[in-house]
Amino acid sequence: AGAEKINTDIITLTRFLTEEQAKHKEATGDFTLLCHALQFAFKSISYYIRRATLINLTGLAGETNATGDDQKKLDVIGNDLFISAMKSCARVRVLVSEEEEEAIIFDEHPQARYAVACDPIDGSSNLDAGVSVGTIFAIYKLPEGARGTKEDLLKPGSEMVASGFTMYGASAQLVITMKDGAVNGFTLDNSFGEFILSHPNMRIPKTRAIYSVNEGNSMYWDEPVKEYINSLKYPAEGKPYSARYIGSMVADAYRTLLYGGIFAYPADKKSPKGKLRILYECAPMAMVFENAGGLAVDSHMRRMLDVVPEHIHDRSGIFLGSEGEVQKVIDAHKKYV
Ligand code: AHG
Ligand code: MN
Ligand code: MN
Ligand code: MN
Q: In the chain, at which end, N or C, are there fewer CB atoms within 10 A of the end residue's CB?
């Protein structure tokens, strides 16, 4: 009787991608190949993160990136692994990475039809403490006749064809969504070396009394944000919200996706444009949340996926999470316009 409980019809990411491709008659297989390369980047980054303290990969690399962050050794290695995967799959024409000042143009692949943005290691300040970090990705399809420049990425997030992230936590969790599609979650089985579909069709709960924000910034917040967060902590009736803040967007967002609630990194007096970067943090995460039934807005209460970056490393304030929770933020801002 015990044998009946073992699932022998396992959906690996490889199988999932093959089945997705079969649903699209016009598909050439290029997108599938690109995803296979992504999957290898996640596996290899996961491997090095898990071995970091054993092979002298903790600590700083000694350089600063384009957005002013001190690079950790693993930021650099994660970036190199990601670039190499994207280059070798020969399906990517343009790549933007947090760790590269300029967009990388793969002139050796002039026929490649995709542009990718990535945050190779998100939450890298948490690395040496062994706290969960992640990799975020956004995929755009080049329009017919595109020249293959960074302009191919300076578009609203609504034009992405796919996005997602992998969280390197107690296990590696990959979350991926495609345009107008469902959100699917996979768990890396280290003995198979395969991502296995463990969370099909993820839907974020409509409401949940959890907020996630760096409250150390509260003295810099604008009035609507202060008033909104206060309303969660000192409700007119009922219990106050629980606070959860890891400090890795991927980990805070993954928990929010599963449990519901709200994650916020608002623009404030210290960071008037916000801290998180549009192309490889805000937009891909917003697509995941919208496709899971949630919402994502910027500090002007605009739909995050409508925001168009001017430069590849542009930042934005962001509020994302359960529909009912993000609606409360929007309502709290209405009084001030
Ligand atoms: P990264 O490690 O890719 O530079 O991103 C850091 C980001 C994000 O992961 C997190 O949500 C946020 O920075 C945390 O910022 P604070 O330390 O200011 O709270
Ligand atoms: Mn960084
Ligand atoms: Mn990040
Ligand atoms: Mn990063």
A: N
Per DSSP (E only), the strands in the chain are 60-64, 70-72, 92-97, 104-105, 114-122, 133-141, 160-168, 172-178, 183-189, 194-199, 210-212, 242-243, 262-265, 295-297, 318-321
Please check the confidence at residue 5 and state whether its pLDDT lies above 70.
Answer: yes
Q: What is the pLDDT of residues 143-197, one digit of tens each?
A: 998 999 999 999 999 999 999 999 999 999 999 999 999 999 999 999 999 999 9
187 has which bridge partners? Answer: 173, 196
Phi, psi of 197 (to 5 degrees): -65, 110
C-beta separation of 246 from 169 below 8 A: no
Q: What's the mean pLDDT in 245-271?
A: 98
Which of 276, 278, 282 has most ligand 1 atoms within 8 Å of its beta carbon, as the pocket-test mutant?
A: 276
**Pair of tokens at residue 323:** 């529909």
* ipTM of model: 0.98
- Distance, CA 173 to ligand 3 centroid (Å)? 16
pTM of the model: 0.98
Residue 295's beta-bridge partner residues?
Answer: 321
Q: Which of 100, 249, 319 to mutate to test the pocket of ligand 1 (most atoms within 8 A of CB)?
A: 249
